[in-house]
Specification:
mainly alpha
Length: 1229
């Protein structure tokens, strides 16, 4: 049947007198309109519109409801004139309808059309939908005697403003005036609708009209003659305006906050609505204008705390700690207290949310607000209204999360720190939590367990002391057979898993019986989420049973072992399990075998066979591979002979898969198996080695490192495999040496592989042959490849002992002296001599010193001189007494020759760095030599930039050898007045900041303030060096700079601003080019701001950070990138301030994403632009996860109109998937 015939049949049935026929016809019409590509002629469109409009008046509510659904789809499938007719007819019904039901249906129909019209249709219309609807609504709003008409018109107006508010600029003034008029109406229904409309309109009106609205509200609130019901409306409007207008309301807070506070305090005893609206308004001020509201916290915070316990109809002694009385109160609360007229709970809920806003908006004040907030919040855990109690739990959880943000900071957990104060409250928290676990309310018990989980994550050592109070309630939650308490069970399991994983095992052992019975029952639950969490908790229970694998299990703790194995085995063997349960069961069983296998020897073979089956399953193989690795690493005498050969076969087959995580896990598993059982299954091991061979390449260095480690372990376990490795793996390794990307763990694995290979004594893989092969492979490659090759040559020589070292040195000298090699070979030979010389004293070898110094002084090739510099440094590391005096002498002799001095300084730096961490080797650099080195270095501070940087690095590392002498000396140099000397001192101080504690820290703490004063210098290079020092100190040891931050931060912010005086124009003939000399300084400043945000978030002024972000996001590419990262971090650390300032940031983000690439752009420019878009989208993704982000109209429009379109939508999805993978979670949005 054609579409036209079907529509004719539908229209015939719609006209039927039979109600069922009409309902089915309307339903069929809705289905037809939903079909993609629906199209019909103009006459049919007219008939359909008339039929649907007629159905709106159908006596059957079900039919009229279906007609409303049809309207939205119909409007997108008919012509412009029909849409216009639909809107006009609906508006006429709304305004002129004689029955309430007609007006209500017309209102629903208008909302459907307005909400469902597609953007493409709206753009194609010659008329504007909002203007047409608004013209009709004006008529209805003038019908002042009809409350119903006005109410419906205001309702539709709110919908129009929500979608088209920005496009109604010409109507803003009229709308503002008429809405303010209805806001003061005597009819409550009209006032409420007007409040909603004004709140929806406010984000779009210009500042002048917004000021008029705010002025009107505050003037009326200050007017003593204003009626109480109007005061409620005005305060409510203030609170609803703030989320949409954000920072634009900031100038008004000095006037608005006192007014709202006064209204709250002066409200009549029974006027809970006004108090509720006042507290909501204060919450909105804090969330959306935190910087402006900061000055009013002394008024807002006490008010919110006062009304947190506002309950005039119920008396409760919150200070009484007597347990008997607490039990009595619990019984009273169980009976329930009900008063339908009591609205005081709204005030308490609003107070709790206001406190939550303060906590989230001012994380830097956590150490001040914690002692004020914690006691009253804990006292209100006895709240009688369940929903309010949950809000209080959420507020306290927010408080805990802010404390957690400081737990890893430099302040530690001193008694005055937030963590220290939380520690002192731990007993009170446990008592309050134990009391809540006795409640009958499932929500309350679930909420308190979620709070306890957050607490356990911060202070796990405090949980064991409270187990006697908490275990009964947790056990009861897990053993409850109620079908509606799944959320409670999951929270209980999450808490147990977190607490057991992070706290000492011994205190838990007293409760093994209670815990195990409850957990085993939960493992058998039908709901997969409960079963999965129970299995994860059982995995932690294993650690409780046996905390030390080197010790046998205590006899009294053997009871749960067999039941644990049986319940997990039942889940592991089941075929109809959820994927998450399967994976958790596999992981848990692996832990059981690895930790308890010696007491389950008869049962282990059965479990291993099931794990092998899971390994052969595509769905569970990755988890099974990780499980095999866990078992193989176990120190217990678990026999894997039953499965090792088929397991190796399966793992070998995975090497041919494209799944990278599977390959990584499989390589680790094979290495673990071979390390333990390699000598028994030679054939399987050979097959595995052959499968691994293609992986060894520069394509993926992570997999390459794992593959080389596997081969190294294989060689050590099965020495007979030398010929196979030489044939299959060695060619791949020699090819990889040519790669400039070989570095880090892959290079270390390569060196270990070569050392293991030569130790076998295989003729084809002797050290001389390998060295010759490496030289032949790498001599024509890049400098980076030669550096890696040199380290491999040194590893080969040292692995074979002194005799091979002599042979290797002779080979390298032949290359250098005999002229048998080209420049590439000589470069490699010099590097190899240096690498060998680091661990072996080569001063006694004839010709070594002459060859290196000859290349350093006599070579015409810069690259050879650079290699000779590295070689000389390496030789001096291995023989300081022989080579260091020569280096110092040459530095002095080459004064005035910057290139020569730079090379010698590199050599010197190699020596200093090698000794800075070894106290025993300091004797090789005598005090006299240290003085000589310092004088030589300071004398070169005025050299060119390259030389200065090396001088600074040498001074910094030298200061780590003798901080008592060097730090005061460098500090005195800050007064010299030379910019270059200041740069050297600042950079040297940066090199003094190390990750590990060091004696220099104490001296640096007293000096770093003076070093940071260089940030005020007129020299931009010196300012940049000081900024880099601040970044390094904040990253590694924030305690060094935290005391200086109040004075340093304003100066740092100045460095992040664009300085027009630092932008110069260069005439290049046909065109002029602008050069921004301040670019690198601004980039360093924003990077420093990001480091400070990570290191000490509670010492940061977030508003200042965000104001600078606005300009940084519009800056050069090099500045935008760290700004995107900074915005992403702030979205996690300080979501409240970000949400408040987000309106300012949306436009620069949109410009970055929509910026076109020049048609003449080269590949490098295209790639840079793509990197910037991805960086920007990462920031957008982070912002989009802020709680209540949907309340920001600007960001919501940005996501809809810019990000969720075209290629950006796919790129954002990829970003989200990458983030979810990195976090180890599934993509949920």
């Amino acid at each position: 049947m054609s579409s036209a015939q079907a529509l004719n049949l539908i229209l015939d049935k719609i006209a039927s007198k039979d109600k069922d026929f009409r309902w089915m016809a309307t339903s069929d019409l809705h289905n037809e309109l939903q079909k993609p590509g629906f199209k019909t002629d103009a006459e049919m469109e007219r008939r359909l519109c008339s039929a649907v409009l007629m159905q709106l008046d159908d006596a059957s509510g079900e039919i009229s409801g279906l007609a409303v659904k049809c309207l939205g789809a119909l409007a997108n499938n008919v012509g412009e004139d029909k849409v216009k007719m639909l809107l006009s007819s609906l508006c006429d019904k709304l305004i002129s309808g004689k029955k309430d039901s007609q007006r209500e249906t017309a209102s629903l129909g208008l909302k459907s059309v307005i909400g469902d019209l597609s953007v493409s249709n709206l753009a194609s219309f010659t008329f504007t939908v909002p203007s047409l609807v608004l013209l009709k609504l004006k008529q209805g709003l003038q019908a002042k005697e009809s409350q119903e008409v006005i109410s419906e018109c205001l309702d539709i107006m709110a919908e129009v403003l929500l979608r088209f508010g920005r496009s109604l600029k010409d109507e803003h003034l009229f709308l503002k005036d008429i809405l303010l008029q209805y806001l003061a109406d005597s009819r409550s229904v009209i006032r409420k609708k007007a409040v909603s409309c004004i709140a929806t309109l406010s984000p779009y009106v210009p500042d002048e009209q917004l000021d008029n609205i705010l002025g009107f509200l505050l003037d009326n609130l200050n007017n003593k003659s204003t009626k109480p019901e109007l005061r409620q409306a005005f305060v409510h409007t203030l609170g609803l305006i703030s989320p949409g207008t954000g920072w634009r309301i900031s100038p008004w807070l000095d006037r608005a906050v006192p007014v709202v506070v006064r209204q709250c305090k002066s409200a009549a005893e029974s006027d809970e609505e006004l108090r509720d609206f006042c507290l909501q308004a204060l919450e909105a001020f804090v969330l959306r204008a935190p910087q402006a509201a900061r000055g009013h916290l002394k008024a807002i915070l006490p008010l919110a705390l006062e009304y947190l316990s506002f309950d005039p109809n119920f008396a409760d002694d919150m200070e009484e700690d007597d347990e008997d009385q607490a039990d009595d109160e619990d019984e009273m609360s169980d009976e329930g207290y009900s008063d339908d007229d009591d609205a005081s709970w709204k005030v308490r809920r609003a107070s709790s949310k206001c406190l939550s806003a303060i906590i989230n908006s001012y994380p830097d004040l956590i150490d001040e607000v914690y002692p004020e907030l914690s006691p009253p919040l804990l006292a209100r855990f006895r709240e009688r209204e369940e929903n309010v109690k949950m809000d209080i739990f959420n507020t306290y959880t927010d408080l805990l999360r802010q404390v957690a943000n400081t737990s890893g900071s430099f302040e530690g957990s001193t008694s005055s720190s937030p963590v220290g104060m939380l520690r002192s409250d731990s007993q009170n928290i446990s008592k309050a939590a134990a009391r809540q676990l006795k409640e009958k309310s499932l929500k309350a018990r679930s909420g308190i367990l979620g709070l306890l989980k957050e607490f356990a994550a911060i202070l796990p050592d405090q949980i064991p002391a409270s187990l006697s109070q908490l275990i009964p309630g947790i056990q009861q939650a897990l053993l409850d057979n109620s079908a509606v308490n799944s959320g409670l069970k999951i929270q209980a399991l999450l808490f147990l898993r977190t607490a057991m994983a992070r706290s000492a095992a011994e205190p838990w052992q007293s409760y093994l019986s209670q815990l195990s019975s409850a957990l085993f029952k939960a493992v058998g639950e039908r709901y997969y989420k409960i079963a999965a969490e129970a299995l994860r908790a059982c995995e932690q229970l294993i650690r409780i049973i046996r905390p030390d694998l080197s010790q046998p299990i205590a006899q009294q703790h053997l009871g749960p072992v067999q039941p644990l194995f049986q319940c997990v085995m039942q889940r592991l063997s089941g075929q109809d399990q959820d994927q998450e349960v399967k994976e958790c069961a596999i992981s848990c069983m692996a832990s059981i075998i690895a930790c308890l296998g010696d007491v389950l020897l008869p049962e282990v073979p059965q479990a291993l066979r099931v794990l092998l089956d899971r390994l052969r399953n595509d769905i569970t193989r990755l988890t099974a591979v990780k499980a095999i690795t866990t078992v193989a690493h176990s120190p217990l005498p678990v026999d894997l002979n039953l499965v090792i050969e088929p397991v190796l076969t399966e793992l070998t087959s995975f090497m041919r898969k494209a799944n990278r995580p599977l390959k990584q896990a499989s390589l680790s598993a094979m290495e673990a198996l071979v390390a333990r059982h390699g000598a028994r299954k030679e054939q399987a091991a050979v097959q595995a080695m052959e499968a691994v061979s293609p992986i060894i390449s520069e394509t993926d260095l992570v997999l390459t490192a794992l593959a080389l480690r596997f081969c190294t372990t294989l060689l050590r376990q099965q020495r007979t495999l030398g010929p196979h490795v030489t044939q299959r793996i060695l060619p791949q390794a020699l090819a990889l040496i040519k790669s400039p990307m070989l570095q880090g763990t892959a290079l270390e694995a390569m060196q270990a592989f070569f050392a293991a290979l030569v130790s076998l004594g295989v003729k084809e893989a002797s050290a001389p042959k390998l060295i010759e092969a490496i030289v032949g492979s790498a001599k024509a490659e890049s400098h980076a490849a030669k550096q890696a090759a040199a380290q491999c040559i040194a590893a080969l020589a040292i692995a074979e002992g002194a005799a091979q070292v002599s042979v290797t040195v002779k080979i390298m000298l032949d290359i250098l002296q005999g002229q048998r090699g080209d420049a590439g070979s000589r470069y490699l030979a010099l590097l190899a001599l240096g690498e060998v010389g680091r661990t072996t004293d080569l001063s006694g070898y004839d010709g070594v010193s002459q060859a290196v110094t000859g290349a350093l002084e006599g070579s015409s090739l810069d690259e050879l001189r650079t290699a000779a510099s590295s070689a000389l440094g390496g030789l001096a590391v291995g023989s300081t007494s022989a080579f260091l005096p020569f280096i110092l002498q040459q530095i002095q002799a080459q004064a005035g020759k910057p290139k020569e001095q730079y090379l010698l300084l590199r050599s010197l730096n190699e020596v200093i760095v090698s000794f800075e961490t070894s106290a025993q080797q300091q004797q090789h650099i005598s005090d006299g030599q240290q003085d000589q080195i310092m004088q030589l270095l300071l004398a070169n501070c005025e050299a060119d930039e390259e030389c200065r940087n090396m001088v600074a690095e040498c001074l910094g590392h030298l200061a780590l050898l003798n901080p008592q002498k060097l730090v005061p000396s460098l500090r005195s140099q800050t007064q010299a007045g030379s910019a270059n000397l200041g740069i050297v001192v600042a950079l040297a101080a940066r090199y003094m900041v190390s990750e590990q504690p060091h004696p220099v820290d104490h001296l640096l703490q007293g000096s770093i303030g003076e070093f940071l004063q260089s940030m005020r210098s007129p020299d931009r290079h010196l300012r940049r060096a000081a900024v880099q020092l601040l970044s390094a100190a904040a990253h590694h040891k924030p305690q060094l700079v935290v005391a200086h931050l109040p004075g340093v931060m304003p100066v740092l912010y100045e460095q992040a601003k664009i300085d027009p005086s630092m932008v110069r124009e260069v005439d290049l003939g046909p065109f002029k080019h602008k050069i921004d000399d301040g670019l690198e300084l601004r980039k360093a400043a924003f990077e420093c701001m990001g480091v400070l945000l990570d290191a000490c978030p509670n010492r940061i002024d977030f508003s200042s950070h965000l104001r600078l972000l606005e300009s940084g996001l519009q800056d050069h590419y090099d500045v935008k990138m760290p700004c995107h990262s900074l915005l992403a971090k702030m979205s996690q650390v300080a979501p409240g301030p970000v949400l408040a300032e987000l309106d300012r940031l949306v436009e620069p983000l949109a410009k970055t994403l929509m910026a076109p690439v020049k048609s003449s752009a080269v590949k490098q420019e295209i790639d840079r632009n793509e990197d910037m878009i991805r960086s920007c989208l990462r920031a957008v993704d982070a912002v989009s996860r802020i709680h209540n982000i949907e309340t920001n109209a600007a960001f919501k429009g940005f996501m809809t109109n810019t990000v969720s379109k075209g290629p950006l939508q796919a790129k954002l999805k990829t970003i989200k998937e990458e983030r979810a993978e990195a976090e180890g979670t599934g993509l949920t949005q």
